[in-house]
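Bug #77: duplicate submission created two jobs. Keeping one. Sequence:
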Amino acid sequence: MLKILGIESSCDDTAAAIVEDGRTLLSSVVSSQIQEHQKYGGVVPEIASRRHIENIAAVVRAAMQEAAVDYAQLDGIAVTFAPGLIGSLLVGVNYAKGLAYAAGAPLIPVHHLRGHIAANYISHPELEPPFLALVVSGGHSHIVRVDDYTSFAVIGRTRDDAAGEALDKAARAMGLPYPGGLHLDLAAKDGNAQAYKFPRPHVSGSPLDFSFSGLKTAVINLLHNAEQKGETVSVPDVGASYIKAVTDFLIDNTMRATAQTGIGTIAVAGGVSANSVLRRRLQEYCDKQGISLYLPQLRHCGDNAAMIASQGYYELQKGNIANFLLNATASLSIDYI
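Kept job's structure:
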């Protein structure tokens, strides 16, 4: 049984976890910076990287203690090396390199989005490729064909904004606190999703691609126009209508991808996979169509190191091991190898 230590520091969460054989979670520790970044309405990269430096050693120690594992028992150290905030990534990568050298363990580079997909292996040990993955987060909106544990093909992607960014910016425009997507989801629970009409965008010639910039502009214009006219809008109703428009787009393209590929299994990954409307509506669609749907546990939707350790196991099995020249990369496609 192979024990992998995962380290994640791509944005504002410092995390460490130990996973056995890619599926069994032994420990997971996350140090969140949400409260500190709330006052700025979003993540401040310089602050995030400084907090990673302060927290990473204690977070890794806590994960090791929780799992009751010694460094000599580790079969590999997996770390997020791309994509993300470069300053934040560098903290995790350099700490992992030092730890791998000291422990004499293989250094395993893990792509952040591959990790998000792998979160489903922990929540659903029975899940195996091939399947389609809908990856939705603050920075990414992809439909990925997962042919094997380390073989990916992007068949749909956003042309501009990501779904998570569109939700966050709309929430901020409505005066909701950071993190916007979460608070928008909560505010919209009792709203009327038919109260406001938002466009349903499509990308000409690329039926599986996304474009959320027009939706984001539409809600901001609605709010600004109402303010200029002295009108009051219902935040729950606007939020519910807007979330419906975003999830319509995500679900329509995902269903189109299953029809195009003939793959009847879907896994959802990324921070937006925690959205209650997306989870409920996608489950309803999949049940009607006889499609198997896998959703990560809520605690594994956001950034965490368990998903990095899980994917690290499969990267190790494939022989994807880095040397100590490994560097962080701010932008990199999931199908880089």
